[in-house]
Amino acid sequence: MGGRVTRVFRNFNVENRARREISKEKPTPAPRHPTARLDAMADSPEIKEEVLRKDDRFLTLLKDVYVESRDPPVRVKDQGGEHLPCKQEEKRLTKLGHLEGLDVKKVPKGKISIVEALTLLNNHKLQPQIWTAEKIAAEYSLELKEVNSLLEFFIPFTMHKFPKETKKAIKSHKPKQLT
């Protein structure tokens, strides 16, 4: 409905408005910048002669300039006493128990493997008075703040077993009969 109304107003007196626009005088273009006229002056012989002429003073100055470029020599330090410090992480053996074949053998200090994380979360869940955050941090070489956030935000899966339905419960459910 709204489209029809707007179309009527848009198309109203279209021909007269178009004739009025066409009959208007064209606007005069903006003046060109003077550098745009250099193409016309480039054809003149004086300018061509000036461009092609060699200036002896500039040539002598240019001959005095000499640039030499070389790569700096490579310095190799082959002294036995100086060694570049290399960043080596301290590693610790993992504490996996019977799950040794499932995970990596060495882990950097301050980090734990996935199997270790699941093990420590399960230990804390089953025995929270023994496996405290402080003991876990000391055992696995972790920071206490990280262990606290780990224990707060990550919870291992729990399995709930629902009791099986008894025969009495099955009999009370009456199946629909097809007719």
From TrEMBL:
GO BP annotation list: mitochondrial respiratory chain complex I assembly
Any coiled-coil regions, as ranges: none
Region of interest (Disordered), ranges: 17-44
Biased composition, class Basic and acidic residues, residue ranges: 17-27
Pfam families documented for this protein: UPF0240
GO CC entries: mitochondrion
Superkingdom of source: Eukaryota
Family membership: Belongs to the NDUFAF4 family.
Assembly notes: Binds calmodulin. Interacts with NDUFAF3.
Name under which the protein is recorded: NADH dehydrogenase [ubiquinone] 1 alpha subcomplex assembly factor 4
Organism listed in the record: Eulacestoma nigropectus
